[in-house]
Amino acid sequence: MKALDKMDNLDKAGLLCKLFPAELENLQNAIKKQCDYFLQNETTFREGWYQKGFFTAEFWYRLVENVQKGIDKSVPLWKRPHWFTDHFFDGHHSIFAIHCLIEYADDTLCNPQLKQAIHQLFGNDKFLQITLNDK
User: Fold this and answer.
1) Where do the structural domains in the chain lie, given as residue ranges?
2) Where is 16: in which H helix or E strand?
3) Where are the alpha helices (DSSP H) in 1-135?
4) Can you tell me the distance from the alpha carbon of 109 to that of 33, in angstroms, rounded to the nearest whole number?
5) What CA–CA distances, in Å, run from 131 to 18, 44, 65, 114, 134?
6) How far apart are CA 94 and CA 90, in angstroms?
7) pLDDT tens profile 4-45
8) Which domain of life is it from (predicted)?
């Protein structure tokens, strides 16, 4: 096994899958929940998007839509750990997937050991500061 500081996102996600195979369905559900959240609030997010550069609203929503397509396939990705890691943690998709993991780690439903592993592997700094003004 590689040292943690030598691991890329695929390596880290693969390790997480090996350590917590029973949690993969929960992780996929958490990712789906985030996709649904962003898609349901798309207009609000796009209107209030303040980040410039790499994290444009267009880029973010491309990630959300691509991740959502994988979730909507007939075979659940969580049943195949390699598919799970390849779809969610390869390339730019990992940006959104890591965001979802960090958000899930804050959820009271998250297994405390899984939370620790997420923070150890991926950190706990959020990519986006999300604030919706409810009217």
Assistant:
1) 11-122
2) helix 9-19
3) 9-19, 24-40, 42-48, 57-71, 81-89, 93-105, 112-122
4) 13
5) 34, 10, 21, 26, 9
6) 6
7) 999 999 999 999 999 999 999 999 999 999 999 999 999 988
8) Bacteria
